Amino acid sequence: MATWKVAPALAAGCTAILKPSELASVTCLELAEICRQGGLPSGVLNVVTGSGSVAGAPMSSHRHVDKIAFTGSTATGIKVMTAAAQLIKPVSLELGGKSPIVVFEDADLDTAAEWTIFGCFFTNGQICSATSRLLVHESIAAEFLEKLVDWSKNIKISDPMEEGCRLGAIISEGQYERIMSFISTAKSEGATILNGGARPQHLKKGFFIEPTIITDVSTSMSIWREEIFGPVLCVKTFTTENEAIELANDTDYGLGAAVISKDLERCERFTKAVQSGIVWINCSQPCFNEAPWGGNKRSGIGRELGEWGLENYLSIKQVTHYTSEKPLGWYSAPRKQ
């Protein structure tokens, strides 16, 4: 995430200040050291660590910071944008998401199951583009959910340093408690925990949560509408293509969306109708440095990566050079004395 911002900023000729999350600063400090060893002049890339309120907020409002590029929660993005607005400072924001994955009745169920769990449980669900809302056609729902549970139970949950680990710990105790609170609230509201929803029995320490699948969800539930940022997948069924699109778009967010179907014309219709900045067809989460990345609605402003990412750090200037020897001729020339 740091290089998505640092690389185009430096390529555009800017100096940059990188403020990493206080929970994940080490790799950003390593990046700065690599740049120093590579010969980047002192002061071109600067890393400022600390909490958002102490280290991040002053940069948003500082008059000598010309542009802000932020990745994080929608709530914090609103604060960044508000602070920057006082100086009419340009911002690009890559914020939260509650992305849908739609599985139609003609999908290969095992392939769809693997992409569905990857799309939500990859990086322990701690990724803004996670396709954490599953919309599955009612005719295949029962069979597909059985497969999802089987695939989920086969995920190795362990210390990430262990060979074959596919699901590690949540980043902090606070986030762990937040996710568990969402799960508990969903149960109290009448949802069904089909799989997971608790600490793995073989892990007594660390903030581990089993891959969780929740059914019997209504569109008004917080588990369906709010970004969880953890390994939690919510499930609803649909009957028609139009209903699937309507449910997919019924969200304040618009970062990613995925569709699984052998009917490519249907996939194309979905791609055009869904209100998101990124669409995956028969997959979920692949990302390419050449392609634009960013969201609509409350998922953000602007695009990163590719030529679009470079444009974030450039300002277009118009230069007009009058080359004719003829005078403008709009005004009458004064008489010579």
From TrEMBL:
Lineage: Eukaryota, Viridiplantae, Streptophyta, Embryophyta, Tracheophyta
Pathway: Amine and polyamine biosynthesis; betaine biosynthesis via choline pathway; betaine from betaine aldehyde: step 1/1
Record's keyword terms, sorted: NAD, Oxidoreductase, Sodium
Gene Ontology BP terms: cellular detoxification of aldehyde
GO MF annotations in UniProt: aminobutyraldehyde dehydrogenase (NAD+) activity
Pfam families reported for this sequence: Aldedh
Annotated active site: E94
Domain (Aldehyde dehydrogenase): residue spans on this chain: 1-319
Source taxon at top rank: Eukaryota
Homology family: Belongs to the aldehyde dehydrogenase family.
InterPro entries associated with the record: Ald_DH/histidinol_DH, Ald_DH_C, Ald_DH_CS_CYS, Ald_DH_CS_GLU, Ald_DH_N, Aldehyde_DH_dom
Main enzyme class: oxidoreductase
Protein name: aminobutyraldehyde dehydrogenase
